[in-house]
Amino acid sequence: MDALGLLRPGASVSGLPAAHTPGAATGFALGDHAGRAQAAPAAEPGVVASTASGPLQRRFQPYQNNGGTVLAVAGKGFCVVASDTRLGLGYSIPSRKVSRILKMTDKVVLASSGMQADMLTLHKTLRMRLVQYQQTHQKHMSLTAASQMLSNMLYTRRFFPYYTFNVLGGIDENGEGWAYGYDAIGSHEKVSAVCSGTGQTLIQPVLDNQIEFKQQWGAPKVDLSLEATVELIRDAFTSAGERDIYTGDFVEICKITKDGVDVEEFQLKLD
Questions:
Q1: CATH of domain 69-267
Q2: Which of 102, 193, 200, 260 has the highest CB neighbour number within 10 Å of its CB?
Q3: Interval 3-42: pLDDT, tens
Q4: Matching PANTHER family, A to Z (predicted)?
Q5: What residue ranges do the domains of the chain occupy?
Q6: Number of H helices and number of E strands within the chain?
Q7: What's the CA gap between 49 and 30, in Å, rounded?
Q8: What's the number of CA atoms in the CB half-sphere (13 Å) around residue 12?
């Protein structure tokens, strides 16, 4: 130590933590697998600490969440599947017009949120499976068969799953509308209304209240018409777009009836 009491480069002082010495800078900058610094043992007086701080583990993160909100609402003789079109990446918006909808048949529609690359891979594989099923059985896949096939596909990738969160909606063999909600590894549930994605916490309580009447104790349950359901979905996405930066721009609304799938687009705020 010089006359001014300053520590010269390469010098060491007894009692000074080793993490403050130049030799420990490399270990501090790299850190361990949890991102925390690995402090080297305290240096002996007059000895510069070694740069070797033990084994290091490099982190590999294969996933990213590109945002998006998807939902499905079923009613008497219809089902509505909707998704916004904003592709987010951190605080950036690489694209405002990305479709998350896959029309599997004239009575079954899938919407997926999560990682864009995994979503495209999943939808591509589903298209192939649908063609194989049609050529083998000479008919289109039913809603029940499509829901089970999607569950099986997600479950087979459970050790390195598709980073997607899916909702499936459509009309069954009896003409009734149903919706299915999935997690990333294929666990699914047959419900009347389900939402997934970054806006789930904002929209799902609205669906529970207005579709399932879960919080309206004693109130008679009223089945909404197709037009009323679409209006509710527009309001839900408009509200979610005000709070969730990953939901916005446009909403694709697929109205599934016995006559087929009708798609309309609804514009949200662009900021």
A1: 3.60.20.10
A2: 193
A3: 444 444 444 444 444 444 444 444 334 344 444 444 445 5
A4: METALLOPROTEASE TLDD, PROTEASOME SUBUNIT BETA TYPE-1
A5: 9-60, 69-267
A6: 5, 12
A7: 16
A8: 18
